[in-house]
Amino acid sequence: MKQGNFELIGELSVELLQSINSDIANHFKVIPKLITDLKLDFYIDEKINSKEDVSSQLELLLDKKINLHPIDSALIQKALAKHYRTTENKKASEYDNDFLNDLIFNAKQISASDIHIEIFDENARVRLRIDGKLIETNIVKKENYQELINQIKIKSNLDITEKRLPQDGRIEFDDFDIRVSILPTHHGEKVVMRLLGRDASHLNLKDLGFENHQIELYLNAVKKTNGIVLISGPTGSGKTTTLYATLKSLNNINTNIVTVEDPIEYTLKGINQVQLKENIGLTFSSALRSFLRQDPDIIMLGEIRDGETAQMAVRASLTGHLVLSTIHTNSSLGTISRLIDMGVPPFLLAETVNISVAQRLVRKLCENCKEEVTLNPNELPKSYSKPFKIEKHFVSKGCDLCYHTGYKGRKAIYEVLLINNEIVENIKNGDISKLNISEEETLSYQAYKYFSEGKTTLDEIYPMLLNN
Q1: Residue 206 gets which letter from DSSP?
Q2: Residues 6+ positions from 121 with CB-CB distance below 8 Å
Q3: What pTM was computed for the model?
C-alpha cells in the first residue's frame, strides 16, 4: 500500500497518482491518501457538505470502498494545482515535460484503448478512443508538437531523425504495454498509441455478452479435442478478447496451448505465446507449421488472413488439434463462404469447423444519466422488419460519471452458428445458398433485443439492423 503526506504537500507515488484522473480529483475536490486492493482513502475539502454523496459516487466510479478524510481547503487546492491540473487548462494548450506521462496514465485510468496525436495547420490535437469512439481531450501548440513526438520516439526506441517513413515501436510499463505507430502526413507525423493490457486474469467468457443458450453451445464446441472454432467481425469488434477469454477457460496443467498473435495483447500464464514477425518470415502459416512439431493440444492463430493459413488450420484440426482463430467476415454464415473462397475444399471444411461466431461491440448506456423517450418507428431503418414492437427507448445524455459521453463500458453482441448435420451436408454438397440461421440467433435480432431492454441506444445498433 502507498500513502501520501499532504500536510506537507509531499509528492504522490505513481500508484496513488494513477488511482484517479484529474477530472475526478477536481470535480470531487479529493486527493488520494491510501490505496489497497479493496479500498481507497481520500483527503477531501472540508467545505464539501455532501460527503456521503461524494463517497457513494466514488465507490460507483472506482469500484472500491471509499473513506474520506476532511482537511483544510487550502491544502486541497494546492495539491490539486500541483498534481491534478484540469482538463480545461490542458485544453488551453498547456504543455510541459510531464504532459506525455499524464496523457498516458489518464488514458489508462479511463480505459481508453488508443491515443491519437495528430498535427494540422495551426496546432495539434490529442484524441482518446473510449468505448470505441474518438473524443478530443487536448490541444498542443504547434511549437511543442515535435518535442512531444521525439519523447514518444525515445520511449519507443525509434529513430528521432527519421521523419519520412512510417515507424513502429513499443513502450513497456509495469502492468501494460503501448504499441506505437508513427505515420508521416502532410503537416507532420501522426502517432497512434494502442494500450495493451498484460493481464488476462480478469477475462471471463460469461461476462462478455453471450446469451445463456449461446454460451452453452460455444463451450460445448471449444471443449472438443479437435476441430476449428472461428470468431468473425470487423476490426475492433472484440474478437481477440473473446479468444483470450476462451483460452483462459481451457488453460490447465494437462493442456499444451500455443498461440501466434499480432500483437500479443495479453499474457496468459501457462500458455506459449509467439509474436508475429512477418519481416523475418514468421507468419501465421509458418508459425503453424512449427507448432505442429511442438506437440500442442490447442492452437490459437490471431487471424486467418489467406488461403495457406486456412488450409494449414484445417490440416491441424484433422490431425487431432483444436484450432481457434478469427476471420474478417460480416456474419457467421459469411465465414463459411469466405473459407471456401480461400480455397478450402468444402468436404474438409464440413468435417473440421465446430462453430462459427460473429460478434460486434455496442456501448452501454450510462445508468446514471440515460433518459427514456418515446420511440418513433420512422427512426428505424426502412428495410428493417421489427421482430416485436417497442414503445419506449433510452437516449444518452452525459454526466460526470461517464465523462459526458452518455455511455459507460461496452458489451459484445453475438451470433452463434453451430455446425450441425444439416449444415455439414449442405457444405459438402456445395449448397452454400441453403445455409441459414434462425432469426432469433442473428446479430440484428440480438442487438434489437438488447436495445429493447434499455441498455443501449438506437445509434449503437443501427448498423446491425441494416444488415438484417
Answers
A1: G
A2: 187
A3: 0.73
Distance CA 346, CA 343 (A): 9
Report mean pLDDT in 10-residue bins for the chain, 468 residues: 45 75 83 86 86 85 87 83 60 62 87 93 90 88 91 92 92 87 95 85 87 95 96 91 94 94 84 89 87 92 92 93 95 94 94 96 93 92 90 89 84 94 89 85 95 95 87
Measured at the CA of 459, the angle between CA 454 and CA 462, to 5 degrees, comes to 100
Amino acid making up residue 409: G
Whether omega for the bond prior to residue 381 falls within 30 degrees of 0, making it cis, is no
Give the N- to C-terminal CA distance of the chain in Å, as an integer. 52
Spatial separation of the C-alpha atoms in residues 414 and 442, rounded to whole Å: 8
How, if at all, do strands 353-365 and 407-418 pair?
Answer: antiparallel
Cα–Cα distance, 73 to 44 (Å, whole number): 8
> What does the pLDDT read at residue 283?
86
How far apart CA 414 and CA 412 sit, in angstroms, is 6
User: From CA 268, how far away is CA 199, in angstroms rounded?
Assistant: 7
**Pairing relation of β-strands 322-327 and 227-232?**
parallel
CB atoms within 10 A of CB 161: 8
Q: Please state, in angstroms and rounded to a whole number, the distance separating the CA atoms of residues 209 and 229.
A: 18
Beta strands in 173-247 (DSSP E): 176-184, 189-197, 227-232
Q: Which residue has the cell 512449427?
A: 290
The dihedrals phi and psi of 277, each to the nearest 5 degrees, come to -140, 80
Strand partners, 350: none
Enter the DSSP assignment of 185: -
For residue 90, the model assigns a pLDDT of: 44
